[in-house]
Amino acid sequence: MYPMDEVRWPGEWLRGVLELCVLGVLADGPTYGYAIAGRLAEAGLGTVKGGTLYPLLARLEGEGLVSSSWHAGEGGPGRKYFVLTAAGRRELRTRARLWERFVDGTWRLIPRPEEE
Amino acid sequence: MTKADDAWRDAFVLELRLRGVPGTVIGEALAEVDAHCADSGQTPAEAFGDPVRYAAQRAGDIAGPTALGRTTLRAWWIQTAAIVGAEGLWLGLTGLLDRGQAQIRLGDLLTVIVLPPVLAVIVALAFRPGMGRRLSVMVALAFAVAIGAAVGSPLLWPRVVVEAPALILILVGVVGLGAALWPILAERHRPDPITDPRPPR
Lengths: 116, 201
What we know:
The structure holds two protein chains of two kinds. Chain A is of the alpha+beta class. Helix content of chain A is about 55%, strand content about 10%. Chain A has four helices and three strands, in the order αβααββα. By secondary structure, chain B is mostly helical. The radius of gyration of chain B is 22 Å and the shape is elongated. The chains are: A alpha+beta, B mainly alpha.
């Protein structure tokens, strides 16, 4: 099990950013559900449960941004590996640019913590 | 796998079946749960929450709204055809005993028009996520409403709207009931097993 996070992020923040982060994780190469959850936890986003992750991955697959296949596991049951499609890579680039503008916009309104 | 895990998986599969999700897709979703729990060491309940709620969400994402829509449409068709068939047969048979003419009362027409959507709403409420144990209450309610309407409405609205030859109504009744049974019978011959997508070890 991955270590528990210290911060509990507001649900609406996570809901807004989770898809983009999952696409980002997959940009590094094909991987499976639990490993994706681990990367998200390591990045400080907290524990993303299977009940949240797999429907999200299914949606991405339905939109053609991700494809999946089952591979025999090492000594265990098979694992479902997810990989970014070409359309997924393009979508990630687009959303990353938009996200940058979005975050820049919010920082124009919120006082930076050092300025308090 | 513990008994609780088996119960979780059974509830999950049942809900997906009720939502018309194909067997291959159910197998896919189930294998995901098993694989994730094997990796994480969590139980299905810990990782995926309530099985009925997760199945409802997953069914919506896997098959899109069309699967649920198809199931609802099919339910509507069966209910409406069954009500029309039963009413037609009842009026036709009673008319046959009474000089061969069936009397269609206002209450009979109201039953045929109003009952199918009312039953459809009750059934739709019964299959909302989380209704699990209350399903039998909803089904009993639907039954009570249907019987109450069939018996009560011709008494409440007894005005005869039209008369028709009893044999015509018996024909309508037979066709209606046949149309209601057809989707059910047709599906029995189409096996839809749940298949595991994982490669054999």
